Amino acid sequence: MKFKTLLFLTLIASLTILLVACGKNSDETSEKKVLKVGSSGIYPPFISVDDKGNPQGYDVEVLELVAESLGYDIEWTFAEFSGIFGMLDAGNIDTVANLIAATDERREKYDFSSPYAFSGATLVVHEDTNDINSIEDLKGKKVGVLLGNNLHKFLEDWNKENGNEIIITPYQDVSGTYNEVALGRLDAFIDVKITAASRISKEGLPLKIYGEDYLINYDYAFPFVRSEDNKEFLDSFSSEIEKLLKDGTLKKLSDKWSAIDVTVPHK
């Protein structure tokens, strides 16, 4: 009898330990780390949203690989680009995936990851246009730009210093802007060269890039709110990007999504 009682108590104790252990594992697995990412979702080939609502593009795949290596799930939030940095400042998102240029002005406020793309600004013009060969030639011309991005500010700053003669036309949604140039409603659209080359190739419109020279060079990286609490995570995040660059993964993603190699640093 005593043996049966002892065996029963041993079984109960074992089951209790097992249930506690299972409960602990369940709690641990339910505590997934989440990286909240904001984007306009309309800046192909870096980010766009497919028919099922899933994000796709170069930025998306780079971010997914980094997040997976660090043990994070991504929670996407899509909003108008002009409000994205306000969401970052408010803590509603952790970073932005929208081919963000790490400009000097932005670096004064935000911490950036290591760069994952390199390019510069160019002009998209109609294939029959031959009188736009420099930014000076835009005086008196109507030029489209994404509202609130770094190229918008670049144009505005240049305009203020040079007589305000460029007719700047900002767009909240740039998906139809290349067609505006093709139809002659815009004389030019200022864009990142890697985006311009990809869109011209994909959309098949009678357009061209105005020339070989960049209007201005940029490195592109993921911005984070400046905080000591973010420093360790940001170091790990940057380390993963550098690994992807070094082992050729970024080059493969660039070949998949872009018409030109976006992984070659500026000289």
Question: What can you tell me about this protein's structure?
Answer:
The protein has 267 residues and is α/β, with parallel strands linked by helices. Helices cover 41% and strands 23% of the residues. It contains 9 helices and 14 strands. It has helices spanning 2-30, 58-70, 84-89, 104-107, 150-161, 177-182, 193-203, 228-246, 249-257; strands at 33-39, 42-43, 47-49, 55-56, 72-78, 95-96, 110-112, 117-126, 142-146, 167-171, 188-192, 207-209, 217-220, 223-225. The strands form 4 sheets. Strands 8, 9, 10, 11, 12 and 13 form a 6-stranded mixed sheet that branches. Strands 5-1-6 form a 3-stranded parallel sheet. Helix 2 packs across helix 8 (228-246). Its main location: other.
Q: What characteristics describe this protein?
A:
alpha/beta, 3-stranded parallel sheet, globular, signal, SBP_3_CS, Transporter substrate-binding domain-containing protein, Solute-binding_3/MltF_N
